[in-house]
């Protein structure tokens, strides 16, 4: 079973809240957060790990001292000495994660104005043909829906840039990995608009997925470690 979690941040955190988060996450995460120039990036970085820890302790009964993170050679995070898998993403106002008993990948993206030409070329010819058929008012949101689906797949397989975006195709309507490429097609995709400005996607091996994305309040995270 795979469960999905989210936090929505509508304003900057206070210095006390940031200090509290730094006592919750690992030292390595604190160091990573402190390398960011912008406060919102530091907040997302800290909250991403705090959200995973909260879910593992509250819903999976893991002991704090047993939560040990590591990364694969391509940078995909994983839990040491555990059969559970997780993945995290953050963009705009949202931090998301999914946790379950099979491999998975998640992505969230803020819908925004972009110079699409170069990024558009990263899509497969099948995907570009589909986007070209859409009316102008639908292209931007469909672009980000497809982008999050493809990001979730790349994060699922965990090979990073070794899997170019134009090397596989996803049907944006059926949410299926197309079989024209030599890829594992025994996958499930979940796609949802979190609000008017953010698309979210999950890619996983399991077809048993909790469709509800559990939204956790920031105060609940902080008070959990009182």
From TrEMBL:
Q: Which organism is it from?
A: Streptococcus pantholopis
Q: GO biological process: any one?
A: lysine biosynthetic process via aminoadipic acid
**Stretches assigned to the 4'-phosphopantetheinyl transferase N-terminal domain:** 15-98
Which InterPro entries does this UniProt record tie to the protein? 4-PPantetheinyl_Trfase_dom (IPR008278), 4-PPantetheinyl_Trfase_dom_sf (IPR037143), AASDHPPT_N (IPR055066), P-Pant_transferase_sf (IPR050559)
Q: Which keywords describe this protein according to UniProt?
A: Transferase
Domain named 4'-phosphopantetheinyl transferase: residues:
104-186
According to its UniProt record, which protein family does this protein belong to?
Answer: Belongs to the P-Pant transferase superfamily. Gsp/Sfp/HetI/AcpT family.
Gene Ontology CC: one annotated term: cytosol
Record-given protein name: 4-phosphopantetheinyl transferase
């Amino acid at each position: 079973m795979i469960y999905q979690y989210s936090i929505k941040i509508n304003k900057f955190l206070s210095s006390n809240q940031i200090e509290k988060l730094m006592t919750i996450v690992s030292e390595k995460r604190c160091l990573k957060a402190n390398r960011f120039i912008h406060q919102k990036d530091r907040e997302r970085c800290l909250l991403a790990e705090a959200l995973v820890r909260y879910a593992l302790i509250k819903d999976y009964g893991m002991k704090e001292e047993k939560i040990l993170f590591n990364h694969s050679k391509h940078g995909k995070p994983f839990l040491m000495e555990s059969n559970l898998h997780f993945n995290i993403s953050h963009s705009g106002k949202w931090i998301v994660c999914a946790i379950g008993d099979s491999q998975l990948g998640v992505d969230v993206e803020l819908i925004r104005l972009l110079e699409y030409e170069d990024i558009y070329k990263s899509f497969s010819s099948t995907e570009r043909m589909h986007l070209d058929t859409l009316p102008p008012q639908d292209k931007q949101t469909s672009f980000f829906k497809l982008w999050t689906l493809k990001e979730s797949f790349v994060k699922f397989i965990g090979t990073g840039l070794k899997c170019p975006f134009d090397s596989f195709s996803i049907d944006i309507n059926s949410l299926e990995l197309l079989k024209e490429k030599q890829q594992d097609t025994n996958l499930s995709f979940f796609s949802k608009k979190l609000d008017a400005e953010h698309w979210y996607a999950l890619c996983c091996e399991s077809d048993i997925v909790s469709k509800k994305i559990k939204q956790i309040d920031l105060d609940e995270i902080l008070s959990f470690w009182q």
